[in-house]
Amino acid sequence: MSETEKIIADVDLDLISSDFMEAVRRRPAMYIGGIDARGLHQLLLDVLEIPTRAAAAGACKRVEVGLFPDGVLVLRYDGPGLTADVHPETGLPLVELAATMSGSACRRAWDPYCVTCGPYDLCLTHLNALSELMEIEVCHNGGQYRICFSRGRKTQDLHRIGDCGLVSTGTQIQWRPDREIFGDVRNDQNLAAARCRELAGLIPGLKVWWTGWDENGQPRTEAFCFARGLADYLAATRIPGRLLHAPILLEGRRGDVSVSAAVAYSEEQSTHIASWANFDETEWGGTHVTGFKTALTRVLNQYARTHGLLTAGDANLTGDQVRRGLSAAIAVDLPSLEFWGATRRRMIHPDAVGAVNSVVGSSLAVYLEANPDAARIILEHVRSGPPALR
After folding, report:
1. Rounded Cα distance, 300 and 304, in Å
2. How far apart are CA 383 and CA 390, in angstroms?
3. For residue 349, what are the domain limits?
4. 140 lies in the same domain as 38
5. Is 330 helix (H, G, I), strand (E, B) or coil?
6. Tell me, what CATH number does 215's domain have?
């Protein structure tokens, strides 16, 4: 018996499909943070983890997200994704296991791309438990298959509904929120669109199509794709005021930690830093942001000293000074995560500090040496204001 089969064999499927689903329905806030618009958004974040991880592995090039006025969510993506293969030990399709199993056993059993997926290592289980209707369609071995769920229970077995034609792979998930849980709460359309934009920035070249409805009930469609990843994303969405130089892309890897960052300065006085860990936004920052700030302060001071922009009698530039007018985006990808709180708003993994400090520091130092005009503009700007500015 393989390790995956042992994992599945140790899982009590009946317990998962009944007790666990009921636990999610009784206390949904424990799993998604609330039964308001924020909770609905967390479900969107969780289900988007599936194509995100596939895209990061190079197995998905296109994602389509639709959020309709009645709360229905439709997600389509290409690539292998969910599969109609039957697991030999349980006799269940792997797509069914993905929607009904809890814990890391499901992750390892059916999806090699999702290293982490939600605070409890789930993608579809919460979505299933809190659904009035969830339909999953997959293209597999030339056939198109469908399986249906409602409120955590399977309502229709996996069955073939047609042929895939020219599309050999791909998955569609359609989900309607359970009004017994959410009432009349609706998704925040702007938050959902922003998340789609983020994914395109975090994975260079990924095409993300977003369809929603504006306040007047009119359809709203946007397409996002950023060839230079966070650098293009930063230029398109995150920089207030007049830009002083082209966004700087800083990328690298240290050990098991992959780091990508983009930096740009504008004439603004304020600081704007966005961060992500394993594609989840960490709006309260964390150890990766700490490593970034440390590297930025160190490298700008070193460059200024080396090139005579700071003399022996000058004090070092402070952290607040070097962040004057800064817009930055920092993303890390780690094999395991540690968060403060179940909703993953602050990342506290200790390895991120050194990895980001090293990658950003070395990449930024190389950039400044190769682009002395941009380096001079940045240092003149950060030195021109009072040291206490943020």
Report:
1. 6
2. 13
3. 234-383
4. yes
5. strand
6. 3.30.565.10
